[in-house]
Amino acid sequence: MLKSPFFIIIFLLAIEIAVLYAADHARFKKYFAFLPAVFWIYFLPMLASTFGFIDSKSSVYSLMTTHLLPASLFLLLISVDMKMILRLGRPALIMFFAGSAGIVLGAPIVFFIFKKWVGSNFWAGFGALSASWTGGSANMVAVKEALSTPDAVFLPMVVVDTIVPYVWMGFLVAMASAQPLYDRWNGSDRRILDQLSRKAKGLILQESKMRWPTTALILGLAFLASLLAQSIAKLCPVIKDVISPYAWTILIVSTLGIGLSLTPLRKFENAGSTKIGYFILYFVLTSIGAKANLSHIGSTLVLLMAGFMLAIFHSGVTILVSRLIKAPMFLVAVASQANIGGVASAPIVAEIYQPGLASVGLLLAILGNIFGTYFGIVAGQLCRFVANF
């Protein structure tokens, strides 16, 4: 068994690098079509610790989470182009937030229904899942730590977060041909699509180029932000079972990243700040997986049912709001996938529904990365109230 923190770090880095390389290699990419790289980055360290290859109780895991997670969140948020997102217009933004509201409000309702089968301790798991389904994997990990979600609760939620979004995406893709029927029934304002098409032509998504001197500067800035957020968090009030010092750290570093994205520091995106942020985040995820155990997977089937029910509730809210503002089915589907799926799948759904509008799906998913942590914490607290009800 590997117990040395140094060798554990090397082992986890090797897993992350191997998975990311395979997922990006043409020969192996097909094997990641259903179970994405982020799942294997979590799952393989869990297998290693379950079968005794690495120490699941090593103190290095908490150190990695404490210092690296805030740094990764900062880098992922500092590169957000708020002006570009706001250019999408009111209907697109309203539909996205309607989808988020469906998740945040639906989570405590679904948890209340399934609480007697999964146990009241799963309130934090539903909060973490809500963070992913209003944002992405970064938000899920952030809320997992902010709410002190037990590993036995988090593991089944990772499985739910892997399976349900892919099934949901398949359903949305299958419904693409029903757009004319839906829009006639809804009385949709199709001029919204024309406006989005014009705006999409002006959106320029630049490719980043990493250079070592700038990379070192980006890393230094990220760890400085992490330390600053932790220092400020110590001065903030702690409310037992509601908000901990680490929850404050997550909220502060997220807000700091969003705020600085409005400054020239956002240009670090051109130097690869997002890529670096994701690499650090996935490294944190390996440490979370290493603390988990296969025996924690017991209630997954029931939670999958809960996940599908939450997705259905979410869709009901988006359809209702679509009726109110006469939004076309395109925005219903893309806003839904931007919430539940994220940056990898929302552009695909957008392109299938309306060729040429993939950027709309991408920008809405990025908007989720901004708000997912906040929404997840709110949903988690609502579920905590239900757990004590």
Number of helices: 17
Strand content: under 5%
Structure summary, number of beta strands: 0
Tell me the structural class: mainly alpha
What is the residue-averaged pLDDT? 89
Q: Any low-confidence stretches, pLDDT <50, length ≥5?
A: none
Helix proportion of residues, in percent? over 70%
Radius of gyration: 20 Å
Structurally, the number of domains stands at 1
Judging from the principal axes of the Cα atoms, what is the shape? Answer: globular
- Report on the biggest sheet: none
Note the gap between the termini: 44 Å
Instruction: Tell me the series of helices and strands, N- to C-terminal.
Output: HHHHHHHHHHHHHHHHH
Description of the structure:
The protein is mainly alpha-helical and 389 residues long. The chain has one domain (5-54, 62-203, 210-387). The chain has 17 helices and no strands. Helix 5 runs antiparallel to helix 14 (300-325) and helix 5 runs parallel beside helix 17 (358-387). The mean pLDDT is 89.
Summed up:
With 389 residues, this protein is mainly α.
Topology readout:
Layout: H1 5-24, H2 37-50, H3 60-78, H4 82-86, H5 90-118, H6 123-134, H7 137-146, H8 151-174, H9 179-186, H10 191-201, H11 212-233, H12 245-260, H13 273-291, H14 300-325, H15 329-340, H16 346-353, H17 358-387
Descriptors for this entry?
single chain; 389 residues; mainly alpha
